Amino acid sequence: MCGIVGLLVKNPALREQLGELMLPMLIGMTERGPDSTGLAVFTAPVADGRRKFSLYSGEGEFDWTAFERAARQALSDDSEVSVQANHGVLETAAPPPQVTGWIRAVYPRLHVLSAGQFIDLYKDVGAPAEVATRYDFRNLTGTHLVGHTRMATESAVTPDRAHPFTAGEDWCLVHNGSLSNPYQIRRKLEPLGIAFETDNDTEAACRYFEWRMREGDDLETAIHKGFEELDGFYTFLMGTKDELALVRDAFACKPAVVAETDDYVAISSEFRSLAKLPDVKNARIFEPVPEEVYVWRA
Amino acid sequence: MASVAPAPRTTADTVTFDLARQSLRELNRFLHHDLRAGVKKVRVLNPDGAHNIAVGVDAPVEIEVDGHAGYYAAGMNKQARVLIRGNAGPGLAEGMESGVVHVKGFASVSAGAAGHGGLLVIEGDASLRCGISMKGLDIVVGGSVGDFSAFMAQAGRLIVCGDAGDALGDSLYEAVIYVRGKVSSFGADAHEEPMRESDYVALADLLGRAGLKHDPRQFRRVASKRELYHWNADANQEY
């Protein structure tokens, strides 16, 4: 079991309150996923030609000031780092392969959680309330977000196996369910030069869709190909720079419910985590049907 | 969909629980152990999708839930009349034995699963596996039902006023399904049969009890071909 939550604000005035609106949703899914918690938030973009990288430093102290200094020398002299607990965001003009290559070589301790112009990503071991406090989720702003509370079944409880998973740029996926052929997917993708970071089944789905989109599929086409290739149970919630997308497998064993108003669209595994949203009593509430792809644009 | 709840009030024959302030355990303990004579109605305010609302009730009481219920609402119900003024989560009225469970909105997967008796009314749609393995319960769905509904249904009746998804009535035993709209596909051993006079009578009765005004003549009867009842080595796994 896991919990998924998603929130996209249609009313630009609510972008400042994105984190505050989401917080009861995420905490409401604690019983479905007390092990680990993660969140990807899509914000106003960094300037053209620049990228931001969410980085996780793990346990213990990390010298982010020295890291910023090194990034300015090695990557671009206007590189900047902002820090929240053991999580930092590096913004730089250097191209992504150079950045990730440099981090891997010089700072192997850092785990690159996400890359892109829009996405910030936080994930860690711990219950939702605890992780939300650690990273100050309440004050997050942006257009849309994708969150997850994990009850691990397919791989160990570690920060890097928490959701959301990312691949490429400005793309993330969370999953409630389990895939039975992640290694088959992996054996298909690895010879194409796609590297995996964990043994988690969800990572296979995340990299599969990102690969399809890089090959020219739009998101919906990629998801339809997934119906043929991904075997298992799933509700997937996915984020791109300007979309939230939701899909359930043909058997719909893993729940999802959507509440939509003129101001927002909110998605959760269960209604109980939507119950605190403003005006939810007048929202259009529905259960997504299996194998139908739902996409909302920010 | 959910009506605006009035202020909680406890009168001689009505007891109100507000789940925004009281625990679900308090509600269910009351329903199981403390229902004194004279209490005719129990109102539940702010259910907010809580799990297990009014499970295992065995008393002739009316229970009104003002809002959306989560997993397993009114499971194993006996005698009680439960009205949910909202939607219901997975496993609604699982294993119910008697009484009436009535949902104004939609119901998630496995509504009425394995139910032995009573009447389950869902005014909106029911998701996949509605009435799976039902054993004598009657279910009336005002909207449509999802795939695999009435899978291995043994006894009772499932009435679908809208459409049915794929594999309707797969491996059906003696339960009977009545469908008003389209059927995406029949499951193994399920097929359409001519309506009989007794079918029209049963439909009129159940639709009336559910408060739905459809004409019984608009429905078709789906039942078991009974070919799966006996192993046939020559069938080569094709049924």
| Low-confidence residue ranges of chain A | none
CATH architecture of the largest domain in chain A: 4-Layer Sandwich
Structural domain count of chain B: 1
The end-to-end span of chain B amounts to: 43 Å
- Which regions of chain B contain 5 or more consecutive residues with pLDDT less than 50? 1-5
Per CATH, what is the topology of the largest domain in chain A?
Glutamine Phosphoribosylpyrophosphate, subunit 1, domain 1
Helix share, percent of chain A:
10-25%
Figure out the total of helices of chain A.
Answer: 7
Describe what is shown at a glance:
Chain A is α+β, with helices and mostly antiparallel strands and 298 residues long.
Task: Describe this protein with a few key phrases.
heterodimer; A: 298 residues; alpha+beta; Glutamine Phosphoribosylpyrophosphate, subunit 1, domain 1; 7 helices; 16 strands; globular; B: 239 residues; alpha/beta; Pectate Lyase C-like; 11-stranded mixed beta sheet; 2 helices; disordered N terminus
Description:
The complex is a heterodimer of chains A (298) and B (239). Chain A has 298 residues and is of the alpha+beta class. Chain A is globular. Chain A is built from seven helices and 16 strands. In chain A, helix 5 packs parallel to helix 6 (201-214) and helix 6 (201-214) packs across helix 7. Chain A folds into two domains: 2-44 and 124-297, Aminohydrolase, N-terminal nucleophile (Ntn) domain (Glutamine Phosphoribosylpyrophosphate, subunit 1, domain 1), CATH 3.60.20.10; 46-117, Alpha-Beta Plaits (2-Layer Sandwich). With 239 residues, chain B is of the alpha/beta class. Chain B has a single domain (47-225), classed as Pectate Lyase C-like, CATH 2.160.20.60. Chain B is built from two helices and eleven strands. Chain B is elongated. Mean pLDDT of chain B is 94; it is low at 1-5. The chains are: A alpha+beta (298), B alpha/beta (239). The interface between A and B is medium-sized, with 19 and 22 residues.
